[in-house]
């Protein structure tokens, strides 16, 4: 069985038929609500749709899942079907032992087994598939038994906790300045550095840490949202994130002034060269882009031409896919409206940001010496900056609440009074709201880590982002001097 995905943008380029035009097919997909990324399962010999599985793909599309999720779910079903075919079975004729065999293959026998967390997602899709097949009458019953309270018996029984990893001040500066910025630990410029946009990558880490947002939220930010748009006053930025947020849950995001200045430095020194080189490429792709002609900063709306039609969007409601193709007429021609751009002139994708981080880790490990901070066995993730934000803010707010009270029992009594009398100022709930957690229960898991951070500051993030405080090189020099007993 072959697996394909709906992509309406390719129709005009590749559909060549006298029977139906690309515009007609695109209009039909829109009218039927078939989203880009919807999986389509085709018979290998006839290339005709496989009805039960294509029906499930259509069902997923109506759930308004994003394109990436639709593709992931389609691949899960495709892998399951391929394994069943290898057993002489298929999705409709599988029995419980076949599904157990597939589970064991994924978590035990394959070359690179997946963990319980990844299997939990696959098990959910598999469960949803068979519920669909029973509800639509393709099957009379599910092939696998149902455990107590309707639970999927093949799902992982162990519920894993959050993998919370955070950075100390020294670790963050080493990651940002040496790994992403290409500096040497001794403050010298690294002549072997081959990074293409160190200021962009540094700005990304500053915004990720300073705002505590998820990768999809900070990497897709538009220039008007972060205040780097003509006529805007500058300084700290605050905007609403919704379409790019997890579960589409709207919340307010605050980006501190130092982080905005870090982004502004990228816009002044690196970004113009990138957009200038890519301007001609974007001009050729203009008909596939959303060309903005009007920006209403106060109302948070943009207006322009998309697919030959004048469209208007609320900025917070623009998904990542639309943001990626959003451009405006700049100094050198068409220019991306997203803050972060790559060589093609548009927003970097997930793989690009992953490669920036991996290359940074390689540089950090290669340059590590006795002045560098401890590096964990696993390389840092962008999400670790969100964990660091949460722990720094939570620790800072708790210290503010404690004040200078030296007695631990007195502090404990004060906590009880604070939580009951001033619940809206509860540090845990404040952090939960800032992180956009659906339930405060998720934020509770950070409590066991609040004593791990050893650096205390006058403000929660003073000196972390921007360049007003010590650079990593100065920190390393101080550490080396201290190690030698004050003698250089």
Helix-strand layout with pairing:
Layout: E1 2-5, H1 11-14, H2 22-32, E2 39-42, H3 51-62, H4 67-86, H5 96-109, H6 116-135, H7 169-180, H8 198-211, H9 215-218, E3 237-241, E4 251-255, H10 257-269, H11 271-284, E5 290-296, E6 301-306, E7 309-314, H12 320-324, E8 326-330, E9 333-336, H13 350-367, H14 383-402, H15 408-421, H16 427-435, H17 440-444, H18 472-483
Parallel strand pairs: 5-8
Antiparallel strand pairs: 1-2, 3-4, 5-6, 6-7, 8-9
How would you describe the overall organization of this protein?
The protein has 488 residues and is α+β, with helices and mostly antiparallel strands. The protein has 3 domains: 149 residues, no CATH class; 128 residues, no CATH class; 131 residues, no CATH class. The protein is built from 18 helices and 9 strands. It has a 5-stranded mixed beta sheet with strand order 7-6-5-8-9. A hairpin with a 2-residue loop joins strand 6 and strand 7. The chain starts with a strand and ends in a 5-residue tail after the last helix.
């Amino acid at each position: 069985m072959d697996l394909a995905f709906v992509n309406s943008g390719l129709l005009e380029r590749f559909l060549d038929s006298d029977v139906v035009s690309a515009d007609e097919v695109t209009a039909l997909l829109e009218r039927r609500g078939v989203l880009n990324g919807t999986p389509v399962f085709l018979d290998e010999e006839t290339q005709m749709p496989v009805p039960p599985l294509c029906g499930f793909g259509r069902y997923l599309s109506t759930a308004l899942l994003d394109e990436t999720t639709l593709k992931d779910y389609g691949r899960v079903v495709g892998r399951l079907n391929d394994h069943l075919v290898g057993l002489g079975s298929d999705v409709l004729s599988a029995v419980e032992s076949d599904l157990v065999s597939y589970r064991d293959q994924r978590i035990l026998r394959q070359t690179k087994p997946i963990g319980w967390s990844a299997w939990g997602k696959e098990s959910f899709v598999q469960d949803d598939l068979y519920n669909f097949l029973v509800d639509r009458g393709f099957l009379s019953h599910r092939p696998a038994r149902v455990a107590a309270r309707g639970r999927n018996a093949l799902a992982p029984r162990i519920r894993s906790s959050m993998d919370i990893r955070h950075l100390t001040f020294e670790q963050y500066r080493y990651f940002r300045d040496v790994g992403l910025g290409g500096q040497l630990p001794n403050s010298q410029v690294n002549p072997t550095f081959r990074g293409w946009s160190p200021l962009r990558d540094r700005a990304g880490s500053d915004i990720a840490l300073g705002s505590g947002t998820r990768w999809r939220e900070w990497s897709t930010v538009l220039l008007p949202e972060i205040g780097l748009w003509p006529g805007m006053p500058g300084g700290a930025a605050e905007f609403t994130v919704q379409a790019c947020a997890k579960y589409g849950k709207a919340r307010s995001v605050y980006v501190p002034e130092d982080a905005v200045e870090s982004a502004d430095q990228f816009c002044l020194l690196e970004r113009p060269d990138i957009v200038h080189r890519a301007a001609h490429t974007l001009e050729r792709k203009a008909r596939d882009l959303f060309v903005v002609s009007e920006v209403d900063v106060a109302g948070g709306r943009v207006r322009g031409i998309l697919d030959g039609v004048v469209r208007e969007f609320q900025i917070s409601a623009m998904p990542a896919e639309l943001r990626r193709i959003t451009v405006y007429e700049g100094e050198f021609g068409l220019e991306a409206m997203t803050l972060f751009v790559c060589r093609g002139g548009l927003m970097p994708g997930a793989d690009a940001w992953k490669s920036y981080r991996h290359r940074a880790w390689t540089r950090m490990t290669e340059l590590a010496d006795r002045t560098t901070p401890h590096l964990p066995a696993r390389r840092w993730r962008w999400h670790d900056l969100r964990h660091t934000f949460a722990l720094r803010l939570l620790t800072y707010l708790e210290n503010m609440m404690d004040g200078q009270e030296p007695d631990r029992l007195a502090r404990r009594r004060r906590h009880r009074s604070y939580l009951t009398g001033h619940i809206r100022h509860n540090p845990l709930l404040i952090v939960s709201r800032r992180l956009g957690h659906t339930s405060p229960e998720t934020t509770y898991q950070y409590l066991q880590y609040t004593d791990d951070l050893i650096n205390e500051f006058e403000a929660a993030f003073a000196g972390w982002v921007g360049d007003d405080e010590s650079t990593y090189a100065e920190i390393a020099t101080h550490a080396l001097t201290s190690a030698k007993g004050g003698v250089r």
